[in-house]
Amino acid sequence: MPQKRIYIIDDDPIYQLVTKKLIEKSNLFSETKAFGNGNEALHYFEITGDLPDVILLDIEMPGMDGWDFLDELLRIERSFHKEATIYVASSSIATEDKIKAKNYHCVKDFLSKPINLEKLKVIASEE
Amino acid sequence: MSLDTRITALNSWFLSRPKTSGLLIFIILLSILNLSIYFKYQAVKQSEQHNMSNILGVVKQNVEQTLRNSYVATITLALTIDDSGNPKNFEEVAKRLVSNYNSIDAVQLVPNGVIKYTYPLKGNEAATNFNILESPLHRKAALKAIATKAIYFSGPVSLKQGGIGVVGRLPVFKKDKFWGFSAVVVRFNTFLKSTGFSSFKSDKYYFQISKTNPITYKEEFFLENKADFSGKDYQMVEIPEGDWKLYIIPTKKSHLLLEFFPLTFIAFFLSLLCGLFVTTLLKKPSELQKLVKSQTLKLMRSEFLFKSIFDHAGLGISHTNSITGNFIDANDKFCEIIGYSQEEIKGMNFMMITHPDDLQYDLDNMERLRNGEISQYSMEKRYINKSGETIWVNITVSPLWEKNERPNNHITIVENITKRRESEKLILESQQKIKDLIDSIDGVVWEGNSEEPGITYISKKSEAILGYTPEEWISDAYFWRKIIHPEDRDWVIEKSAECARERKPFDSEYRMIHKNGNTVWVRDIVSIYHESENSIKFRGILIDITKSKQFELDLNNSLTLVTEQNKRLLNFSHIVSHNLRSHTSNIQSLINLIEMSEDENEEQELLALLKSVSEALNETIDNLNDVVSIQTDITPVIEELNLNKYINRTLEVLRDQIVKNEAKIKNNISDGVTVKFNPAYLESVLLNFISNSIRYKHPERKPVVELNSYIENNYQVLEIKDNGIGIDLKKNGDKLFGMYKTFTNNVASRGIGLFISKNQIDTMNGKIEVESTLNEGTTFKIYFK
C-alpha cells in the first residue's frame, strides 16, 4: 500500500510546525504540507488540483473557519473528482463540534489535539 | 203602584205596541163614527115616518070629513021621509045637499033596496029601479049596513049608472021596520079629490087605498101603482066605515141605508187612516222606546259592572272631592289599604293619610290637574295607615269633569306597591352589593356588546388604575383604543377585533397610558356571552400588571444576565479548554519531539519553540486573569466621567497608529458630556473600539473615525463610526463579542478586545449594539446607563 499524502490546515504556527515534524519523523506518509487557514488551502487546491488523501483540519480559525472550509472543499472535490479523508483536529472539548462533524460525510473522525504517533498510525492504516 | 206609574205603564204599553194601538184606535173610531151615523140614520128615518103619519092623518081626516058629510047628507035625506014612507021635498033637500057638499056627487033614496029617487037624475038614470039587494056587488055591503044599523060605504065599485064610485048607505027604519036606504054616491074621482092626495103628491110617496073584496076576500087596490109594496116602509090607517085601508108608501124602497153607506165607508177609511197614522206615529216612539229600553238596560248593566268593579276591584278606588280633598266614597280595597272603615273615610281627606314628605308633590299635581295643565297623573307615594305604618302606593288620579268644566270630583286608583318597593329595595341593595363587589375587584370590570362600539359599563376602578372616570369611558365609543400605548395599539385592536369576529375569548397583556401619562401594563381578559343569536356581549377585566410586569421584566433581565453570564462562563470554559489545551498540547508535542530528537541543533530549535509556547501560554493566562477580574469585580467604582477627556487621552495613546495609518478622527462630542462608568473600564473600552476602527481599516481608503454622543431611552450613547472593512453580521454576529474570535487574518487581532469591552460594559449595566456593512464600515453604539 502506497503511503498517503497528509496536509495540515491550522492557524497555530507552532502546532503546524510540530505536527509536520512529527509526521515527517514517523515516515508513515509520503508527503505533508501545512496551511495557516482555509482560504490559503482552498486557493492552493484550486490552482494545483493537488488534493491530499488526508486533511488534518482545525475548526477554530479566523476568517474562514473549519466548517466553511468543508463546504467549499466539497465543491472543489466534485470538480476534481477526488476525495480527501478529513480528520477534524481540535483542542476544543465542546461536544457540539463533535456532533456537527458527524454530519459531514467526508469527515472520518474527530481527533483531540495533540496529534501523536499513535493517532498518525491509525490515520495511515485506515482505508 | 200610583196612578202616574199606571199611566206611564199604560203609555209604554201602547207605545211599545204600535200595531195593536193602531188597530184599537181604528176599531174605536169606527164604532163611534158608525154609531153616530146610525143615530143620524135613525133620526132621519123617524122624521120621515113622522112626516108620513102626519100626511096620512090629514088624509084620514079628509076621508072622514067626506064620510061625515055623507052621513049628514044621508040623515038629512032620511029625514025627508015621512011616516008613510014617502019622501017629502026630496028634490029640494037633495039639491041643497049636493050643492052644499062638494064631496057628494049624488044622493039616492033606496026604499027596499030599489033605487027610486036620485038626485041629480041626470047621468044617473041607469040606476033607477036597480035593486041593490039582488046585486051581488052591493048586496053584502047593504046587508052589513042593515046589520050594523049604521051607514056603511061600499066600493069603490062599478056603478050601475057607469063609472066607479063609493056608495054610502044608511039603513032607514020606520017604526022599527026597515024602510030602505038613504044613500050618497061619491064618484071615485071626487072621493080621491076629497082625500087631498093631490096636495100631498110628491116624488117621495104615493098613496093606495084597498078594500077586501067581499066575494074573493082578497084585498083589492084601487089606485095606480098597484105593485107590491110590502117590503117598503109604508104606513096604513083603517077606515072602518068602508073597511078601507089607506096606505102611504115611499116612492122608493128606503134609500136611507144606501145614503148612509158612503158615510160609513168614509168613516171606515177615516178610522183606518187614523189607525195607520197612530201606528206609524207610535212606531217611532216605540223604536225610540225600545232603544231607550236597551240603552237603559246597557246603562244599568254597565252601572252594575262599574259598581261591582268599584266594590270588588283588586285595586283601591276612591272618589274624592277635588277642591277639598274630602273622600266621597271608597271601595273595600281602599279601606283595606289604609286601614280605615268606609264610615271613617267619609269624614276624612286624602291629605290626612298622605305621608308629609309626599304631600306637596301630590298637591302640586292636583293643582295642575285642576288648572287643566295635565289630564291625569300617576305617582308613587306613601300613605300612613290607621296603625301608623307607611304604605307605599302607586296612585292614578283621573278627573271626573270634562274639559272646560269646573273641577269637581276625581277618581283615584290606588295600588299597594309596598311589597314591590321592598323587593326593589332588596334588589337595589343586592345591586349595590354587586356593584360594590365589582368596584372592589382590583381590576377594571367592563361590559360591551357587538351591536355598538364602545362599552356600556365600566367599574369605578378605572379611575384608580388608569385615572379616567367611568363617565369619560362611556362618553367616547373609541376611548379604549385611544389610551392604548401607541406601540401596542395596532396589534391589540387587531387581535381584539379578530377575537370578537371569531367569538373567541381574548387574553392579552399590553400597555395603556394613564391619565397622568404613565405607562400602565394591563392584562385584558375578555369573555364572550351570547345574548341572542345575533348579539353577543363582551365582559372583560383589565388587571393592572405593571408591578408584576416590572418583576417579569426584571426577571427577564436577570435571566438574560444570567444566561449571558452562563454563556460567558461556558465561553470561558471553552477558552480554558481550547486555548490552554492548544498550548499544552503543543508543549506535549514539542517534548515528544525533543525526546525523539537525536540532532542537537534540532533540539535547540524545538526548545526555542517550547519557550515561545510557554510565552503564549503566559499571555493567555494573563488575558484570562483580566477577564476573571472583570467577572469577579462585583462592585467596581463608578464615577461621573467627562467623555471627551477620556477620548482625548485614548487618542494620545493611539497617536502613533493614527499617524501611521493617516487616520482622521472626527470628534463631534461636546465637552460637557459625562457618563457614569468605571474609569479603567472606560479607558479600556475607548482604546479597544477606536484602535479596532483603525486596525480594521479598508485597504483602499484612509481610515475615518467619527465620534458622536446623544441621549436615547435614558442612555447616554457613544457612537463610534468607521469606514473600515465592515463585519459580516449575518455570519459572525453571534461570535462578535466572543473570546478569541477573530474574523480577519490580521496578525494583530487577538480575539480578546471586544470580549473584554463587552464584559466591562455589561458589568456597568450598559449595552452595546453594532451596525455594519461589509466594505463600507461599522458603527458601534455604546449605551451608558
The H-level CATH homologous superfamily of chain A, spelled out, is Response regulator
Order of helices and strands of chain A: EHEHEHEHEH
If helices are DSSP runs of H or I spanning 4 or more residues, what is the number of helices of chain A? 5
Major beta sheet, strand line-up of chain B: 2-1-5-4-3
Stretches with pLDDT under 50, minimum 5 residues of chain B: none
Low-confidence stretches of chain A at least 5 residues in length (pLDDT < 50)? none
Could you tell me the radius of gyration of chain A in angstroms?
A: 13 Å
- The CATH homologous superfamily of the largest domain in chain B is named PAS domain
Protein name (chain A): Response regulator receiver domain-containing protein
GO biological process, one term (chain A): phosphorelay signal transduction system
Keywords (chain A): Phosphoprotein
Keywords (chain B): Kinase, Membrane, Phosphoprotein, Transferase, Transmembrane, Transmembrane helix
Commentary on this structure:
The complex is a heterodimer of chains A (about 130) and B (about 775). Chain A is of the alpha/beta class. Chain A has a single domain (about 5-115), classed as Rossmann fold, CATH 3.40.50.2300. Chain A contains 5 helices and 5 strands; from the N terminus they run βαβαβαβαβα. Chain A has helices at about 15-25, 40-50, 65-80, 95-100, 115-125, and strands at about 5-10, 30-35, 55, 85-90, 105-110. In chain A, strands 2-1-3-4-5 form a 5-stranded parallel beta sheet, sandwiched between helices. Chain A is globular and about 30 Å long. Chain B folds into 5 domains: about 70-250, Beta-Lactamase; about 315-420, 2-Layer Sandwich (Beta-Lactamase); about 440-545, Beta-Lactamase (2-Layer Sandwich); about 550-630, Helix Hairpins (Orthogonal Bundle), CATH 1.10.287; about 640-785, 2-Layer Sandwich (Heat Shock Protein 90), CATH 3.30.565.10. In chain B, helix 18 packs parallel to helix 23. Chain B is built from 23 helices and 26 strands. The longest helix of chain B is centred in the first third of the chain and has 61 residues, at about 20-80. Chain B has a 5-stranded antiparallel beta sheet, with helices on both faces. In chain B, strands 11-10-14-13-12 form a 5-stranded antiparallel beta sheet, with helices on both faces. A 5-stranded antiparallel beta sheet of chain B has the order 16-15-19-18-17, with helices on both faces. With about 775 residues, chain B is an alpha+beta fold. The two termini of chain B are about 120 Å apart. Chains A and B meet through helix 1 of A and helix 17 and helix 18 of B. Chain B: This is histidine kinase. Chain B: Its EC number is 2.7.13.3. Chain B: It comes from Flavobacterium saliperosum.
